[in-house]
């Protein structure tokens, strides 16, 4: 019986090849190869899907930023109103300048810190430099020492919207209440406006004052 199982051409006894074992190993290899292929396909599909989703979200964000805010006639910004920013850029720029000059110059002993902080959000380092110079000159110390009140009377700005950054010139009229005496002044300032990302609640118009400079200050007659 052993001769029937183990025998070669020369009559020597050798074991027969395990045919069923090779088939079994081949089946496992094919399964692993198929699993690897499926894994690669799923991974590539997931990456392409994520990339596509990211592109779509970015496009939706850009469209939303172009038409997600409305501007009232007084220049205030209302979010989630589908209007174009560009159509209202001049209105927003004028409102931004009025807001800045009101915060920066309309101060008293009780609100000057909070108002100046709000004003500094609306400009770059050039605004901060003017603030620091005033602080060095003792402007804010005198405000506290003598309980002075600076009240804004009017803010009128002119803009050159031809090319960004946009040049501006602003005439601010304000009064200083010294108790028994009230003095009125006219301040002329200038600079440029550049567009930036909107920052609620610090910079709702998405504009930044640069190259800010106080050109002149003169006392006005109240008569």
Number of strands: 6
Oligomer: single chain
Distance between the termini: 136 Å
Globular, elongated, flat, extended or rod-shaped: what is the shape? elongated
* Number of structurally distinct domains: 2
- State the major sheet: 4 strands, antiparallel
What is the fourth-level CATH superfamily of the largest domain? VirB8 protein
Rg from alpha-carbon coordinates: 38 Å
**What's the CATH C level of the largest domain?**
Alpha Beta
Q: Beta-strand level of the residues, as a percent range?
A: 25-35%
Strand order of the largest sheet: 3-4-5-6
Spell the H/E element sequence. HHEEHHHHEEEE
Using the 3D structure, state the CATH architecture of the largest domain. Roll
Question: Fraction of residues in helices?
Answer: 40-55%
Count of helical regions: 6
Structure class: alpha+beta
User: What do the pLDDT scores average to?
Assistant: 83
Stretches where pLDDT is under 50 for at least 5 consecutive residues are 4-14
CATH topology of the largest domain: Nuclear Transport Factor 2, Chain: A
């Amino acid at each position: 019986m052993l001769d029937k199982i183990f025998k070669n051409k020369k009559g020597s006894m050798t074991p027969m090849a395990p045919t069923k074992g090779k088939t079994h190993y081949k089946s496992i290899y094919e399964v692993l190869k198929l699993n690897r292929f499926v894994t690669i396909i799923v991974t590539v599909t997931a990456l392409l899907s994520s990339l596509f989703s990211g592109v779509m979200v970015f496009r939706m964000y850009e469209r939303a930023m172009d038409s997600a805010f409305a501007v009232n006639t007084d220049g205030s910004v209302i979010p989630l109103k589908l209007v174009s920013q560009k159509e209202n850029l001049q209105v927003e720029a004028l409102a931004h300048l009025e807001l800045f000059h009101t915060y920066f110059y309309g101060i008293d002993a009780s609100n000057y810190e909070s108002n100046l902080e709000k004003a500094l959000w609306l400009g770059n380092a050039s605004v901060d430099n003017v603030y620091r110079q005033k602080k060095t000159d003792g402007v804010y110390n005198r405000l506290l020492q003598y309980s002075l009140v600076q009240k804004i009377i009017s803010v009128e700005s002119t803009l050159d919207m031809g090319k960004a950054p946009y040049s501006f010139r602003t005439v601010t009229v304000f009064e200083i209440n010294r108790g028994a005496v009230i003095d009125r002044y006219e301040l002329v300032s200038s600079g440029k406006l550049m567009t930036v990302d909107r920052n609620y609640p610090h910079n709702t118009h998405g504009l930044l004052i640069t190259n800010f400079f106080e050109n002149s200050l003169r006392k006005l007659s109240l008569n």
